[in-house]
């Protein structure tokens, strides 16, 4: 009964025997005998590259097991999304986080109860603690200011812990999310998605922001190379509201402190984008795309001050607040990347998803104008591979418009 269960893609394969094997292989050798498992599909909208299930466990006597529920994460059934995730090693990254990094990290994530990953196929399974007693904010409405400041303080603990220490043994095998391979892929993906975004969300752009997003396209690789020249740490990579869990009492009136009690009321999931990168990207992505512009303008200086204090206390050296603020502004330019990919690369037939990505795009565009990030746009050469791709992108945009008119 202690053998590992088979990797599965179908929720129907998760029965009492499978779960018993998984929990035993994960170290819960004293778990009660599981009589039944009821699987609740949490929906694909919660995670574009994985399938999330809540499993309700009952024992031989018909009583709720301990734990009564667990979360199981499986590969997405969407073949295109799975190929994308495999190419970027997203499932491998998350598996390595839970297996190697999580127990060292100064940020809470669900406890790993069992995990398996196949290096050849990238099929995987994670059985995780269910954080159902905590709350997930409604990201499209904007994360509340008090919760936002708490989230910035919590990610600062993780960044400060590994600041300039990316050779830490716990980070062995972690991917460089600013490496040349990543940069090239992001530039191609951005240029292919941009025409669709400019068509779908034409009214979201001012003349200035439209000009900026078009100018960034052929310079993506140069932008990420410039960011990579700065301090590096371990980053989450998708630090947004719907990947966060808060205690119900943590709201607008949350304390400005960053003690252990605050950490107990906060947790982060979905580590598929984690790796070695620029810490201020996590902060810029979160504050830029997840907070109402008015709230961001009101709290961002104070939030960055708290962030700077924490990372310096934990490991950052020769890093002034001016350096911190500059890196925040520079990384806000890079936040266009996930916005453009989401708005142009996802099927937005689901209204909830449409509203979510649109709100993120419009908030990011507002932050870009507020922070005057155009000064960080790298200077491009007239003849370059990036400009050739940009010309191709404009051609794709024309073709897309024509197809929409038919």
Verbal overview:
There is one protein chain. The protein is an alpha+beta fold. It folds into 2 domains: 11-129, 2-Layer Sandwich (Phosphorylase Kinase, domain 1); 139-405, Aminoglycoside 3'-phosphotransferase, Chain: A, domain 2. The chain has helices spanning 16-25, 79-87, 90-101, 145-161, 180-200, 207-216, 220-228, 260-264, 279-290, 293-314, 321-334, 336-345, 351-370, 385-405; strands at 34-41, 50-59, 64-75, 112-117, 124-129, 233-235, 244-246, 266-268, 275-277. The strands form 3 sheets. The chain has a 5-stranded antiparallel beta sheet with strand order 1-2-3-5-4, with helices on both faces. Helix 4 (145-161) packs parallel to helix 10, helix 9 packs across helix 13 (351-370) and helix 10 packs across helix 11. Residues 252-261 and 399-406 have low confidence and may be disordered.
Low-pLDDT stretches: 252-261, 399-406
Query: What is the annotated CATH architecture of the largest domain?
Result: Alpha-Beta Complex
The CATH class of the largest domain: Alpha Beta
Q: What's the mean pLDDT score?
A: 88
> What value does the Rg take, in angstroms?
22 Å
CATH topology of the largest domain, which one? Aminoglycoside 3'-phosphotransferase, Chain: A, domain 2
State which percent range the strand residues make up. Answer: 5-15%
Number of helices: 14
């Amino acid at each position: 009964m202690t053998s590992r269960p088979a990797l599965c893609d179908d929720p129907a394969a998760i029965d009492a025997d499978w779960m018993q094997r998984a929990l035993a292989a994960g170290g819960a050798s004293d778990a009660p005998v599981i009589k039944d498992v009821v699987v609740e599909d949490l929906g694909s909208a919660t995670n574009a590259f994985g399938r999330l299930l809540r499993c309700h466990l009952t024992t031989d006597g018909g009583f709720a097991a301990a734990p009564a529920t667990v979360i199981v994460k499986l590969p997405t059934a969407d073949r295109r999304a799975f190929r994308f995730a495999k190419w970027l090693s997203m499932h491998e990254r998350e598996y390595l986080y839970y297996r190697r990094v999580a127990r060292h990290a100064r940020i809470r994530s669900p406890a790993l109860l069992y995990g398996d990953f196949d290096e050849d196929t990238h099929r995987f399974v994670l059985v995780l603690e269910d954080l159902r007693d905590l709350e997930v904010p409604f990201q499209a409405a904007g994360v509340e200011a008090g919760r936002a400041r708490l989230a910035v303080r919590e990610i600062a603990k993780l960044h400060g812990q590994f600041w300039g220490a990316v050779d830490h043994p716990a980070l062995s095998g972690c991917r460089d999310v600013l490496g040349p391979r990543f940069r090239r892929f992001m530039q191609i993906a951005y240029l292919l998605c941009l025409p669709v975004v400019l068509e779908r969300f034409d009214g979201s752009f001012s003349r200035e922001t439209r000009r900026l997003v078009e100018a960034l396209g052929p310079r993506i690789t140069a932008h990420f190379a410039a960011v990579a020249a700065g301090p590096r740490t371990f980053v989450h990579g998708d630090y947004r509201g719907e990947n966060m869990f808060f205690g119900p009492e943590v709201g607008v009136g949350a304390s400005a402190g960053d003690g252990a009690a605050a950490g107990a009321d906060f947790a982060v999931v979905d580590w598929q984008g984690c790796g070695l990168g620029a810490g201020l990207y996590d902060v810029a992505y979160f504050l830029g795309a997840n907070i109402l512009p008015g709230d961001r303008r009101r709290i961002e200086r104070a939030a960055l001050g708290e962030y700077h204090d924490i990372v310096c206390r934990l490991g950052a050296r020769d890093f002034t607040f001016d350096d911190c603020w500059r890196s925040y502004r520079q990384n806000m330019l890079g936040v266009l990347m996930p916005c453009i990919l989401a708005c142009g690369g996802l099927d937005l037939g689901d209204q909830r998803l449409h509203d979510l990505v649109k709100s993120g795009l419009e908030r990011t565009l507002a932050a870009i104008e507020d922070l005057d990030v155009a000064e960080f746009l790298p200077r491009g050469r007239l003849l370059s591979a990036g400009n050739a791709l940009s010309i191709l992108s404009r051609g794709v945009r024309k073709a897309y418009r024509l197809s929409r008119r038919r």
